[in-house]
Amino acid sequence: MKSVKYRPAQIEIDLSAIRKNIHSLQATLEPQTDIIAVVKANGYGHGDVQVARAALEAGATGLAVALLEEAIKLRESGIAAPILVMGWVAPEFADIANEYGITLTVFQASWLESYYQLSNSTAKLPIHIKLDTGMGRIGIREESELNDFLGKLDQSRINVTGVYTHFATADEEDTDYYEFQVSRFEPLLEIIKQSVKQDLTIHIGNSAVSLRHLNHLYHAVRFGIGMYGLYPSTYLKENRPFDLVPALSLKTQLSHVKRVNPGESISYGTTYKAEKHEWIGTIPIGYGDGIQRRWQNFEVLIDGKRMPLVGRICMDQCMVRLDQAYPIGTEVTFIGQQGKESIYLEEIATHLDTINYEVACLLTDRLPRMYLNEKATE
Ligand SMILES: *Cc1c(COP(=O)(O)O)cnc(C)c1O
Questions:
Q1: Tell me, what's the pLDDT at 216?
Q2: pLDDT value for 213
Q3: Which of 7, 168, 209, 249 is an S-S bond match for 12, by CB 3.0 to 4.6 Å?
Q4: pLDDT confidence of residue 291
Q5: CA 302 to CA 336: how far, in whole Å?
Q6: Which residues are recorded as binding substrate (predicted)?
Q7: Catalytic residue among 40, 130, 164, 272
Q8: Would the pTM count as exceeding 0.85?
């Protein structure tokens, strides 16, 4: 069945922006540093398969996701590039990952023991070892823990192809904690190199680290937010080495326009009352699409101008105060550029008191994604 789009609302992803951001980063990296494109959580809401393809086309050499499900989806879409699952996967599913040629992240000695008992695979399982140098999330923290892990590592059954860590503060101006994490990484890496005597892909940098070039980046960077044209933090936006190009726009249309009298109220709870005769537009998207209730009082673009969302955001609709009457079907831009004005995820995140990553991830599947510039012409 061909999918039909009835609703006048869509997310547009410009894949040429994804390619451009990869090219811009590449130009600043040492030639031997590869780019692993991070496409977890449906490519930060942008669409994992399409973004992965564009990133690989632009020169990324591998992909990273959080879940085994996400990795399998990429494989089943015909993507053959190396894929790393960065989250914890239960040992009973390791053989499935192996069959799909997917690399797992492993960091527990007990995981290895379970794997040896459960696995029927004759092929060595590819893994990257994760070191927790200060993020406090997953990974090996202590030298003794690492020695225990390496003691249980049967290299006839497990193929360690990489080692990595993740930074907690790389997007902040102050680099003390970042440097503390580097100082914990280096000695642990040396211990691994003593017992795993083969080529390792070592990667420590996320977008913030790769944009800042804080340190020697080893063999690859894990490039997530920056690939989508979004800055890891305000600090990095202000201190960017090059301009990122945002890939995502969210556009819809006015579905209704009316004139209301002074004192008349708008939406649940009557939180908004017109002060004078006002033109109020209705927009057919709401929190069921990821436009959370906290967007109330924020702005959208109509006729190239900013206009405020008034009254509570509903599940499927919300209202905007217009500066004049507009025809039904007039374009409303929530995210992106319209005329000379633009509203990007950083500004929205500030209004919502969160980060751009979260706003992008929360845009739901009810909004159809349209892909622009799927084929590279640049
Ligand atoms: C999500 C994630 C990344 C990507 O981070 P960005 O800030 O989006 O570049 C890199 N590494 C790990 C371990 C992650 O979980």
A1: 82
A2: 73
A3: 249
A4: 98
A5: 12
A6: 137, 315
A7: 40
A8: yes
Quick check: 367 pLDDT over 80? yes
Answer yes or no: are the C-beta atoms of 321 and 279 closer than 8 Å.
Answer: yes
Task: Please tell me whether 315 is known to bind a ligand.
Answer: yes
The structural domains of the chain, with segments of one domain joined by +, span 16-230, 248-343
Q: Examine the pLDDT at 378 and tell me if it is beyond 80.
A: no
- What is the maximal distance between C-alpha atoms in the chain? 78
pLDDT digits (tens, 9 = 90+) for 232-242: 999 999 999 99
Burial class (CB in 10 A: 0-12, 13-18, 19+), 191: middle
Tokens 């940098």 map to which residue?
Answer: 205
Report the nearest atom of ligand 1 relative to the CA of 357.
8
Does residue 232 line the site of ligand 1, with CB under 6 A? Answer: yes
Q: Judge if the beta carbon of residue 165 lies within 6 A of ligand 1.
A: no
Domain 248-343 has CATH 2.10.109.10: no
Interval 20-37 mean pLDDT: 96
Known active-site residue 6: no
**Ligand 1 geometric centre to CA of 206 (Å):** 5
User: Which one of 3.40.50.10310, 3.40.50.1370, 3.20.20.10, 1.10.1740.10 gives the CATH number of domain 16-230?
Assistant: 3.20.20.10
* Ligand 1 atom having least distance to the Cα of 227: 9
Nearest alpha-carbon partner for 11 in 268, 350, 251, 321: 251
Q: How far apart are the first and last CA of the chain?
A: 33
Q: What is residue 204's predicted lDDT score, i.e. its pLDDT? A: 96
